Amino acid sequence: MQTILSIGADALSYGMVLFIISIGLSVTMGLMKVVNLAHGAFAMIGGYIASYATQQMGLPFGVAIIAAVLGTMLVAVPLERFLYRRIYGAPELTQVLMTIGITFAIIGIANFAMGPTLKTIALPSQLQGPVDLGFRTIAAHKLFAAAVGVVVAIALWFIIERTPFGVRLRASVDDAAMAGALGIRTKIIYAVSFALAVGLAALGGVVGAQLLPIEPYYALHYMVTFLVVVSVGGAGSITGALVAALLLGAVQTTGRYLMPEYGEFFFYLAVIAIVCVFPNGLMGRSK
Amino acid sequence: MSETTLNPSASTPLWRRSVTRDLVAVLILAAVAVALFFLFPSNLALLTRIVAMMLLVLSLDLVTGYSGVATLGHATLFGAGAYAAGIVAAKFGITDPLLMLAVGALAGAAAGAISSLVILRGHGLSQLVLSIAVVSLAHEAANKLSGWTGGSDGLSGISPSALFGMFRFDLFGRTAFIMSVVLLLVVFVVLRIIVRSPFGMLCRGIKQDPVRIRAMGAPVYFTLVKMYAIAGAVAGLGGALSAIATKVVGLDSLSFTLSAEALVMLVLGGTGKLFGALVGTLVFVWFEDRVSAINPFHWLTIVGCLLVAVVLFAPKGLTGAAEAIWKRMRGARS
Question: How many percent of chain B have pLDDT more than 90?
Fold first, then answer.
């Protein structure tokens, strides 16, 4: 019982971090139909900015999060305008190649600018200690990550389902040409959603930095995991991404706890099984 | 009309024209290989590695360029061949290089057929994810079965015996290079025949429109599995070749990174053309060797920018761009 609760607590925080980062990717894939392999690189940029802000400049954690999100968006908007816009609707292979190219370039530049070592983000004292949950103590930053995940899920649901922007976004997803004909400026919708997706990636990169440490190859290591979460959940679905992130987080954490030797085995076997049974993801729409 | 200008005797039958072209292609390749052999005698190990990679990229071209399957896990087949050839040599004492190549090809074909059963279940994004899952699973398996594969230390103790009992694998890699070039030429000709055959045409048809091919009554899934097995044999040969030439098999031969790099090489050269696979690999590995000797991260930055440039400005790869320039020059002259 004790073990199950422990696994559950760890799986929840890990799954929530996966969710925060992957939901941005899910939005890009569902809306722009872009297989954006550079998504992990944006999360990494966010982590680097936060690390620089807290360690070098001595800024508080909250400011660092905002700086990371805004800074990463600043990097991403010109990329969207000049590179991504050209590959909307292109075949998957083309998209994979361009975004892998962007990832490689970002890794090289990150290493040149920040060095190959692990970077840490200074946490405020409130998030450093353990928190007693009754059955076990858990690191406060993990609880914080889980809480941020819940807030992100609710906020996204609200934006997409309850605001005028969300209405336009859903219209553009369903039929971009028709939405354009009705006077929705789809290009702006695309740019804003892309910035939103990248901002979420940066947020996830900062909040999850304790679980997924920031280093130049971050972009490549975890990219596969994010891609898997989106594919299992179904592109463009918030609930799907949440379910997939929690499920895969649970599979990976349980595997690591009970059979540390074969942890990754279960993860990939689960992925193959799920994708074979649900080719469009758990909550994805069939084409 | 370019057909007639290229071939002055347009009345010759089609098969003879294609045989002439094959001969020309083989002669060009052999000439390039001979030139490289004498120009860079101290780089033969690198050149042999390039040939092994060429086999992997040719194999990927069969699957991606000709059949339209998007995969980021093609190193599975390469690694299967490399490990199979390495294991029979190191654990069972089968050290004849030709036998090792045969074992590698068989293992690659088996891995191709089995992994295709999984990968072909998906389309688009799910296909990519399945292929990544397959290569990661294979990587983990090789890592854990360290009794057989040496785990993360790599499989060593491979000492291939002399080729035909006469030519030993010397320190400079001359034998290995000559053997690899001959192997490449044979594979190249066989693949040209395969992609021109009705079977190859069927695969191209599936790439263009699988629904229509199914409506015609041809088995889409089974045809692709067959193509995957052929591609597996080619990639397995490449893996076995690298095991023979370097005498060690590492976990990186089963990695996602190698799969992604192979895809980059293919696109750099041009998909759907066997020559494209060769050119892309040569250019990529050669530059990688030169630049990463200075700083591996600079190489990553350069290859990243290069990829973006290729996608934007030369979507058909180097060979496609060369063809376009060639056509424009001919057009300007006439």
Answer: 23
